[in-house]
Amino acid sequence: MAERPEDLNLPNAVITRIIKEALPDGVNISKEARSAISRAASVFVLYATSCANNFAMKGKRKTLNAGDVLSAMEEMEFQRFIAPLKESLEVYRREQKGKKEARKDKDRKTDSEEQDKSREDDNDDDDERMEEEEQNDEEEVDN
Amino acid sequence: AGAARSARLPLARVKALVKADPDVSLASQEAVFVLARAAELFVETIAKDAYVYAQQGKRKTLQRKDLDNAIEAVDEFAFLE
User: Where is region (Disordered) located (chain A) (predicted)?
Assistant: First the structure.
């Protein structure tokens, strides 16, 4: 189910905001330039994904992980991204951990209220949800 | 700048791009996050590099040609050509 790269675009509003924050105050951006940057960003993700996947395959893994993406940055000569990406990843991991703890605590409280020891499923599986903030680490990519 | 984020690309959209690759079977949530963040850094970088050309042309509006110039001039952007 191949989609053309042009169909997989990133939200204009966010792209525009990132561009404006990167440039000095008072600088504008033409619609054409903004579109071109947005398309370039999509191509960047596609290329980085492919590159990262090579590292996963080299490691005989079927799941692309964060380390593979960082290796891809090196390969693509975007080494200067690596340090800020690692920082962001640390923050993200802490946030995710905080969320898990919060849900575990909530479940524990609920259990003691119900006085029911049996629980049907694990805390952290929400396989059906296709939202941005997903609970599980791995996702099925159907191809 | 670094870990501070005021703009955030939605992970669902980035995930859609990852899924478009037929060779990719599984991607961790963290991998999608790092890709999203890398794309943001990429947008910052290419915008700044293109702006150099707008400045040369004494313009305060970034135009398509500034981008084309940056892509041609910067080695790391060769994959866009």
Answer: 93-143
Residue B58 is part of a domain; what is its CATH number?
Answer: 1.10.20.10
B58 torsion bin: left (phi>0), alpha (psi -120 to 50), beta (else): left
pTM: 0.81
Full residue range of the structural domain in which residue B52 is found: 11-80
Q: Which two tokens stand for residue A108?
A: 């524990």
Cβ within 8 Å of A, B 42-61:
42-48, 50-51, 54, 60-61
Contact assessment for residue A85 and residue B38, using Cβ atoms and an 8 Å cutoff: yes
Asked if B15 has any chain A CB less than 8 Å from its own CB, the reply is yes
A contacts of B31 (beta carbons < 8 Å): 52, 63-66, 68-69
